[in-house]
Amino acid sequence: MFRMKRRTALLMAGLSAGLTLYAAGQQTWAAPDQLDKPAGSPTVKNVILFVGDGMGTAHRDAIRLATKGITGELEMDNMPYSGLIHTNSADPKSFITDSAAAATAIATGVKTYNGAIAVDLQGKPVETILEQAKKAGKATGLVTTSQVTDATPAAFGAHTAKRSAQSDIAKQYIEQTKVDVILGGGEDYWYPAGQPGYYPDHPAEDPEEESKGTQGNLVERAKQLGYTYVRTADELKQAAGHKLLGLFANEEMFQQRPEGEGDVYNPAVPLPDMTKKALDVLSQNKKGFFLVVEEEAIDEMSHENNGPLMIKAGQQLDEAVAVAKQYAKRHRDTLVLVLADHECGGLTVETPGGTDESGDGKTISGEDGPFSIAHSSQTFALDWTTTGHTAADVPLTAMGPGAERFVGVYENTRIHDILEQVLFAKTRR
């Protein structure tokens, strides 16, 4: 009886605030003001934050249908708590965010302009949650299938007025922020122009790729600072130590082009493998760790309206989430979040055939498919309405201590604020 009265009271409070509350399976929604209460907040030892770049609700649906079927659940969806995130930036020219401004909001709790890396509207550096974790003695890590110095990881581990300053970002990682584990692509920004590293300039798959670093040989500098440097999957498996730098491609760990024009998703080291190695290294720190894992190809393939490879990248993200969930089940003081920085492509999931409302099928933004639904004879189509980002809210799912605080509908800056609360027992600013 007490439980029923309490649940009724919560429901009425939510309705009076103008929010719809619902419970679906294990997923729970509540009014955002319930997240402000610091009393009883758990102190979290480890955080694993997944970013499916560009991954909106329809992206998750498409990945789920293709992988698990109509009634199945992805690893990233089969988590006990859910939220919905507003993604707008504070850019005076366009409120539609880019990855830099969105990641900055998540990492710092501050809205900023598009292209900014952990700086505010005046260009002043703002401390990130990863830097706070580092100051608290925790190990830190950045893992991505993009360049390790691309916008999303950069916003957690560096400060620049422009996201394009990727060599500056790399230098900050190893000399200032001192990120312990850095795994992904983007070797070109770590070597000076004309001095290629392990991956040759002008490769056949993309002749435009070449070394272009502006801060000297940063790989050698990283080695001087105690990093173990690896370049291949085998080297990654064998690597030991507490500080690890792995660069596995000139630029992104895939080639993004319109569907059927030479597009490839084949990372030299799969995202689940990079995630597992990062956890192995970071978990050596007895004070815990803060790890960001990004699947960039969801966004890049959405920019090209490439449904098959968007789904493939999403499946790899889900496998990486499975790795993290297994870790969290063994280490109950670990918080796992899966979210997106923004939506890309204006995507919907439809029945195949019929009129393509977004175009005649000859344009890049059009109907894509059909795709088979797992464990079913049915199919679905994807309908792209743009090759750019949109203002659509994006879903968040969470498990572990403090996960219930991410329930509701809120601004992306709130993610930082809640992480600060549960990691360091701080009240909301």
TrEMBL record:
Region span, Disordered: 194-216
Keyword Signal assigned: yes
PROSITE patterns linked: ALKALINE_PHOSPHATASE
Keywords: Hydrolase, Magnesium, Metal-binding, Phosphoprotein, Signal, Zinc
Residues in the signal sequence: 1-23
Broad EC category: hydrolase
A GO term, aspect molecular function: alkaline phosphatase activity
SMART domains reported in the protein's UniProt record: alkPPc (SM00098)
Cofactor annotation: Mg(2+); Zn(2+)
Family to which the UniProt record says this protein belongs: Belongs to the alkaline phosphatase family.
Name recorded for this polypeptide: Alkaline phosphatase 4
Organism whose genome encodes this protein: Geobacillus icigianus
